[in-house]
Amino acid sequence: MPLISFVVPAFRVQGYLRECLDSILDQPETDLEVIAVDDCSPDSSGEIIDEYAARDQRVRSVRLPENVGLGPARNVGLDRAVGEYVWFLDGDDWLAPDCLPEVAERLRTTRPDVLLVDHVRTHWNDTATRSAMAEVFPETPGAATFRLGDRPEAMRLLHTAWNRLVRREFLVDLGLRFEPGWYEDVSFSYPVLMAAQRIGVLDRVCVNYRQRRAGAITRTRGDRHFEVFPQWHRVFHLMDSWGPAVDALRPAVFERMIWHYLTVLGNGQRIAPELRPAFFAQITADYARWLPDGGYPVPDGVEGIKHRLVATGRWRTFSALRAASRTRDTARRKARTARRRVGPAARRGARLTREGLLREYYRAELRRPVDPTLAVYAAYWYRGYACNPAAIYEAARLLAPGVRGVWIVRRDRVDTVPDGVEYVVAGTPAYYRALARARWLVNNVNFPDFVRKRPEQVHVQTHHGTPVKVMGLDQQRYPIGAGQMDFAGLLRRVDRWDYSVSANSFSTQMWDRAYPASYTTLEVGYPRNDRLVDAGPDEVRRLRAELGLGADEQVVLYAPTHREHLPGYRPPFDPDRFVEALGDSGRLLMRSHYFHDRDRHRRAVDRDRVRDVSGYQRVEDLYLVADVLVTDYSSAMFDYAVLDRPIVLYAPDWEAYRLARGVYFDVTAEPPGAVATTFADLLDLFRTDAVRSDAAVKAREHFRGRFCGLEDGHAAERVVRRVFLGEAVEGSPRC
C-alpha cells in the first residue's frame, strides 16, 4: 500500500497536465500512486494520461465514457485509491520541487486525519502570490495536531481539496463524497476539517495553484456561479445531522459562508451585472436562514458594512458602495498612468514623421468597409512567400477562387515572390490599406503591434514549427532565452487570433499553455507539409537536376537552429571533414536559420561538394532532395520526418541549451533517429552508416507516430474549407 494516492482529474488541461504529472513523478519520495481520471475531456488529456501510464507503473489511467464534472471525477479516483492518504491535485496545478519528502515525513510521524499544506497562486505572467497561511498562523503550529474546535482559524485557509491530504480510511468511514456542480470543494473541505480528530499544518509551499488567463471557471461569467449556494447548504445540512458536536463551530462556518458569497459576487469576471441583484438576494436569504442563534464575529471596516447590508437586504446601497469604490480605484490607476506618460520630445513629434503619417492613413482606412474578398498573407516577418501561409494561399486559389490573396513582403525580398502572386511592400500605403481592409489575415508569426483586428476580420495564426524549445508565456521562466520579450504585448497580439493551426496533438498542448486565449485550434496537420506527402519520384528527380545534384549522390542537408541566448554561437561543424566522412558520392547542403538571412554573404559556401542553400526560398524543396537530415533542436526534424528518411540529431550543446533556453521534451531521449553529441560522433555515424541502423529506424518510427499522424496531404485544404468557406472539417470527437 503506497503512502499517498494522488487523484488527478483532467478536463481541458492538455497544456498543463504533463507539468502536473511530472511534478509528482519526479519527486524524491516515490511511495505513491497516481490515479489520473480523464473526465471525457475533448482535448488530448486522455492520451497524455495513457502515455504516462504506459511508461510508469505508478500511474493508473481511468477514462470515463461521459463527462461527469470535477467532483464526481474525484470520487471515481477515490474509489480506486489504495494509499494511506489521498491527495486531490487538479490537472492544471503542480507540486513544488522536492516537497514530498517533507510531506511524507510529517504523515509518518504524526498520522493526522488531515494535513494542510501551503500553496502559492502562480499567475500567467510568472508572478506568485502567497497564501493566507502566515496571517492565519502567525506562529506555525509545528508538528502538533489539533481539532478544529481548538484552532477554528484553520477554516480561514483556502477551502480547496488540493491543499490538504486526507487519511483514506477516515474519509471512507466518514462517507463524505464530492458533490456535482461548481464550487464542489466547499461541501468537502469544511466537513473534513470539522470531523477530523487530528489536523496537522505543514508550513511549506507544496502546491502551485495556477491562475489561468483563459479557461478557468473563476474567469468565466454565467449563472453556474449560483451553484455555490447549494454547496454551502450541504455543509449546514451536514452540521444539522451531526448535532451538538459541531454547534460551537457554526459562527465561524457562517462567517466563512458570507465571506465566500461576497467574494464571488465581487468578482466581475464571474457574475454578470444583470445577475447581481438576484445573487445578492440569495445571499440575504441564506443569511437569514443559517444565522447562528448567538450571532457570529462580524468583520471590521468595509467588510463589516457589507455584511450588515446583506443582513438587511439593501442591494441598492451595496451596489452604490461598490461603484464608488471602483470609481476611486480607477481614478488612482489613471493618476499613476498619467505620471508615467512623460516621454521625450522626440516621441511627441512622431506624428510628423513619415511613419506617423502612414499610421494616420491606416487609421483612416480602418473606417472604410472591410473587403469581403481580400486575404492578406505573410510569413517570417515579411521575409517572402513561404511556409504554411504559402500552402494555404495555393489551396485557396483552387478551392476559394473568389478570394483574392495578397502577400506582404519586405522590399529586399520582392524578388523571391513567384510570378503571378500579388504583393504589397511592407511600410507602403498599400501595405497599411491591405491590413486595414482585408477580411482574412494569415501569418505564421504575429503582425506588428499597431495592427488592430476589426470585428469583421479573421486572423489565422499558422505557426511555423512543432516546438522543442519553450515558447510564449513559458519563456518567462527562462529569461536568458527570452531576452527583452514584452509578454504583455505578446498577449495582446495573441488575443487577435481567431484560429491557431496545429500540426499535431503535442503542439496543440504546448500552444494552449504558451498562448492562453480564446482562439479556436485547427489540429489538422501542417499545410506546408502537404507537398512532402504529395511529391513523387519525378518531382524529386527534377529538383535534384535543378540544384545540380546527381541521382546517385548521397545528399545530406544540415540545418541547425538559432540560439537566441547565444546570437553568435555556431555548433562545431567542419564541412570538409564531414563530406570526407560521407565518401566520394556525398554532397552537403548547409542551411542557416532564417534569422541570419541578412548576414548570409559573410558565410556563403559554394564549392565542389558543399553548398550553402540558406538563400533558397522553399525549404520543402531541400527536404525533398535530401537523403538525410542533420539538425539539432530545429522544427525541421518534424517536417522532414514526414518523408520517413534518416534524421540525425546533432546536439553538442544540449544540456546548456535545455537549461538556458528551456525545452518541452528531451529530444535526445525521444529522438527522430541517431544521436550525436560531438562532431566526432557525428562523423562516426556516417562512416559506419549507423544513421540507418535498426535502432535509428525504430526511433524514427516512434517519432513519426507521435508527431506526423495528421500529415496526409490535405492539411491546407482543411484550413481553407474551415476558414474561407465556413465548412466543417474532419475531426476526432472524443465524447
TrEMBL record:
Pfam families: Glycos_transf_2, Glyphos_transf. It is found in: Cell membrane. GO terms for biological process: teichoic acid biosynthetic process. It is a peripheral membrane protein. CDD domains: Glyco_tranf_GTA_type. The keyword Cell membrane applies. Keywords: Cell membrane, Membrane, Teichoic acid biosynthesis, Transferase. Residues 5-142 form the Glycosyltransferase 2-like domain. It comes from the Bacteria. GO terms for molecular function: CDP-glycerol glycerophosphotransferase activity. GO terms for cellular component: plasma membrane. Belongs to the CDP-glycerol glycerophosphotransferase family. This is CDP-glycerol--glycerophosphate glycerophosphotransferase.
